[in-house]
UniProtKB/TrEMBL annotation:
Keywords, sorted A to Z: Acyltransferase, Endoplasmic reticulum, Lipid metabolism, Membrane, Pyridoxal phosphate, Signal, Sphingolipid metabolism, Transferase, Transmembrane, Transmembrane helix
Gene from which this protein is expressed: LOC107668619
Any GO molecular function: pyridoxal phosphate binding
Name of the protein in its database record: serine C-palmitoyltransferase
Reported cofactor(s): pyridoxal 5'-phosphate
Family: Belongs to the class-II pyridoxal-phosphate-dependent aminotransferase family.
Known EC number: 2.3.1.50
Main location: endoplasmic reticulum
Pfam family, one: Aminotran_1_2
Signal peptide segment: 1-20
Organism: Sinocyclocheilus anshuiensis
UniProt-listed InterPro entries: Aminotrans_II_pyridoxalP_BS, Aminotransferase_I/II_large, AON_synthase_class-II, PyrdxlP-dep_Trfase, PyrdxlP-dep_Trfase_major, PyrdxlP-dep_Trfase_small
GO cellular component: endoplasmic reticulum membrane; serine palmitoyltransferase complex
GO biological process: ceramide biosynthetic process; sphingosine biosynthetic process
Subcellular location: Endoplasmic reticulum membrane
Organism lineage string: Eukaryota, Metazoa, Chordata, Craniata, Vertebrata
Length: 534
């Protein structure tokens, strides 16, 4: 069989490993993703934590209403009390009563290049995280496990920085016009030709903002009478773009091909609601790497379904371009697929290229259509030239067009760092989500108090991490999200792993019931699990 779903029921916890065997039809290599179920006791305690926080939140709101506690909440003035509320007080309940308690784990300003390490401006709060003040101290050489600097191009020395500096001196920073007016420069067109060559498509178009690449272009592709099938964990930019289309939107379970096929089959059989006319278009929206789960889209199966039911495929490669594939060409190359099988290839330059903006690639007639119908193309200011030069230089480095093998060595180092870091965390006993080859590595924390405490304790030990909680994740699945980089040395990773283990013991975060048994001769770095008797 090509697709096997193996369930390991160990001590009441299921570990799901999606394994595509190498025999053939769709996958050319094993496809392994693990999502260990939340321990029941931990789930109960997490719900209890939120329950207690909610009770105290209502108590504090009562105290604020009666002026017992100082109120920092934005609200209408007394003379506007009979107006329709501008500030939805209840909707912000989570923000003011739960998020504010751990807000110091985010919003930390840095004052250096966000490379493998960075310098952090220390802040303190005297009003329980409602406002922050600079202490004047700078925390030096914090190991950076939070930035999307996958290939290590976020640097202030080297070819990229030199080229961007020279272009800034020659052309300035801003363009001050749209591409259709006075803002189309030769460097923009060179970048688009280079991007099309890199992606293996007929044509490509670049945009100044990654978020807007999705939110402003999807409405140009579909509209009323069309159907969008969206993965339940798609990024907010895809969700917003879909909502702006006026199309009917149906959501399928994350990376679940049975759920997607059921929606496709129902769409073909029943057509549009009430009229039962055929849908004008059916568009499938998926991502290459899902930034909160660390999972990789099961693209061979999605393409097979897309062909079977004559649908269109929109692939967001924001996190996978540059980070997957032998040559960094993303999830399509990772699976050995033909780029022509993906109708719309979207990605951003903000991660692996350490720049800004996004792109869309595909057939020439598609790109020509977007040049005249995309709001982002017509109304948005052109991409600044220093950013363009950063992308061109880093892309040429990845492709080997700079005459070196630096790009390929960085891609290989990222893959090695990813496998090493994931395996070590699993061996320590942490619950880790996602695909073995994904440089996005979520480590489950669950409880909101531990989310804040983990970030603080790590920073005390000079490790910078990103915590993620509700509403970006399910309410009981708060996590730390590590982003691995080719710029990380083994010494940095070992130092970070030692600190993570130390803090994990301190906060009791080693929840996994599976003991990992490393095997030196296992193919594709597969992992063996046995029951933990402790």
């Amino acid at each position: 069989m090509c697709n096997l779903m193996l369930h390991f029921g160990l001590m009441g916890i299921a570990l799901q490993v999606y394994h595509a065997a190498c025999n053939g039809e769709l996958y050319s290599r094993p496809f392994i993703e693990s999502f260990e179920e939340t321990p029941m006791l931990l789930a109960v305690l997490t719900y209890m934590s939120y329950g207690i926080l909610t009770i105290f939140g209502y108590l504090r709101d009562f105290m604020r209403e009666w002026k017992i506690e100082k109120c920092h909440i934005a609200r209408e003035r007394e003379e506007q009390k009979d107006f329709v509320p501008l500030y939805q007080d209840f909707e912000n309940f989570y923000t003011r009563n739960i998020y504010m308690r751990i807000r110091d784990s985010w919003n930390r300003p840095i004052c250096s290049v966000p490379g493998a390490t960075f310098d952090l401006v220390e802040c303190s709060s005297n009003d329980y995280n409602w406002t922050f003040e600079y202490t004047g101290r700078v925390v030096k050489d914090v190991i950076n496990l939070g930035s999307y600097n996958y290939l290590g191009f976020a640097e202030n020395t080297g070819a990229c920085a030199t080229a961007a500096g020279e272009v800034t001196v020659k052309f300035g920073v801003g363009v001050a016009s749209t591409r259709q007016e006075m803002g189309n420069l030769d460097r923009h067109e060179e970048l688009e030709k280079l991007a099309a060559s890199f992606l293996g498509v007929e044509s490509a178009m670049v945009f100044g903002m990654g978020f807007a690449t999705n939110s402003m272009n999807i409405p140009a592709l579909v509209g009323k009478g069309c159907l969008i099938l969206s993965d339940e964990l798609n990024h907010a930019s895809l969700v917003l773009g879909a909502r702006l289309t006026g199309s009917t939107i149906r959501v399928f379970k994350h990376n679940n091909m049975q759920s997607l096929e059921k929606l496709l089959r129902d769409a073909i059989v029943h057509g549009q609601p009430r009229t039962h006319r055929p849908w004008k278009k059916i568009l499938i929206l998926v991502e290459g790497i899902y930034s909160m789960e660390g999972s990789i889209i099961r693209l061979p199966e999605v393409i097979a379904l897309k062909k079977k039911y004559k649908a269109y495929l929109y692939l967001d490669e924001a996190h996978s371009i540059g980070a997957l594939g032998l040559n960094g060409r993303g999830v399509v190359e990772y699976f050995g697929l033909d780029p022509k099988d993906v109708d719309v290839m979207m990605g951003t330059f903000t991660k692996s290229f350490s720049a800004a903006g996004g792109y869309i690639g595909g057939r020439k007639d598609l790109i020509d259509y977007l040049r005249t119908h995309s709001h982002s193309a017509i109304y948005a200011t052109s991409m600044p030239l220093p950013v363009v030069e950063q992308i061109i230089t880093s892309m040429k480095c990845i492709m080997g067009k700079d005459g070196t093998t630096i790009g390929l060595s960085r891609i290989q180092r990222l893959a090695e760092n990813t496998v090493y870091f994931r395996r070590r965390l699993q061996e320590m006993g942490f619950i880790i989500y996602g695909n073995n080859d994904s440089p996005v590595i979520p480590m489950m924390l669950y409880m909101p108090a531990k989310l804040g405490a983990f970030g603080r304790e790590m920073l005390k030990r000079n490790i910078g991490v990103v915590g993620v909680g509700f509403p970006a994740t399910p309410i009981i699945e708060s996590r730390a999200r590590f982003c691995i980089s080719a710029a990380h040395t083994k010494e940095m990773l070992d130092r970070a792993l030692d600190v993570i283990s130390e803090v994990g013991d301190l906060l009791q975060l080693k929840y996994s019931r599976h003991k990992v048994l490393p095997s030196l001769d296992r193919p594709f770095d597969e992992t063996t699990y046995e029951e933990n008797e402790e």
